[in-house]
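Exercise 7.
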Amino acid sequence: MAEQGGGAAAEWRRYWFLPLVAGMGYATSALQSYGFGPFFQPLQDDFGWTRAQVATGITISNLGAALFIPFIGALIDRYGPRPLGIVGVSAFLIAYGLLSVATGTHWDWWLHWAGIAVATSCLQGTIWTGAVVSRFLLSRGMAIGVTVSGLSVAIAILPPLTTWLIINHGWRGGFLGIALIWAAVVLPMLFLFFRGAQDDLLKARRQGIVDEHVELPGVSRSDGLRSPAYFKLLFISFTFAFCTIASVIHFVPMLGSFGATPMAAAWVATFIGIFSILGRLGTGALLDRLPAHLVGTVVYMIPVAGAVALLIDGTSITNQIIAAISLGLTVGAEADVIIYLITRHFGLRSFGTLMSVAFASMAFGSAAGPYVAAMIFDASGDYFPYIWLTIGLTTLSAIILLGLRCPPLSETSAKPA
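Solution. The predicted structure, written as tokens, is:
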């Protein structure tokens, strides 16, 4: 349970390590999305494929994960986040490293990514944020922000690190090298420090310390799934993931279409990661202080500035950096908003299931967005139509979010809107 005495500072004194470790686990999922951009051109050159054909792997992974995620959410509510997180990271890194032996046939490529899809479903944000929100109440927004900032760290380091590995060891060495580096850093931390209140409660039940019927506070699964506010959150999750994930994955090749070299584009892309840390932490802090629906509305409108900058002059390094910064400020911050709103509207009792379905909606958007962007590029030769589509969908999401007011802060009486 969240710390009940001593205020927000007491929560951080007792559990300061948990958001950091959870963030590293969460960052693992970035490998197959945010870290994939530098692989596009080498794979096209080696296999003779179009950009859309390369992107089918990401589509299969995200689509498959979206199908599995709701079932994983039920397992989280039943078994806790710790075992699923450790198994998920281990399985994913094995599957990701095996991309290094892809043969270049379509069926082989698709089968590799099908394996990644199964593993990715056990990397969903519900696992990592579920453990964190169970320990934090008064500083929940900031704790979520720190957790999802793990993705920002990955976004910042993956483009140059992956590009360096590809230049020096080829794309096969890139896949294998990233998997080995991640395993050496992340897995030991998870074994030592990753545990949520759900894990403690389940352990206490097994030992007979608490009654089998003791539950975390919040609404039932059925009440949450029937809520109109929940359906709005699902729609927003899909549309914004459709835009932001595709924009990040295609950012390096997008700048390449404006004339930037691969390494120059990769370094501009690091601004996404750097400013996404600021965006996530800033959003988390604001969620603890201001109405969440207003914070979210502003966050969801930020990418429009970057899109307009590229439409005006995508060859300008200044405009490219503006686009990277605006994308960074909002990438992941939208997850802060969705996670926070779900805990405020529905509590923690069914958080695993409700948040997992929301992440499934994001995964469907993540699956469709990169492929649609690639198809638009293959058909038109540039990304301008996709940029206009991004402006429209992010604006629509912001308008819907503006109407989602939070109930009063209470961990014990959360009710569906």
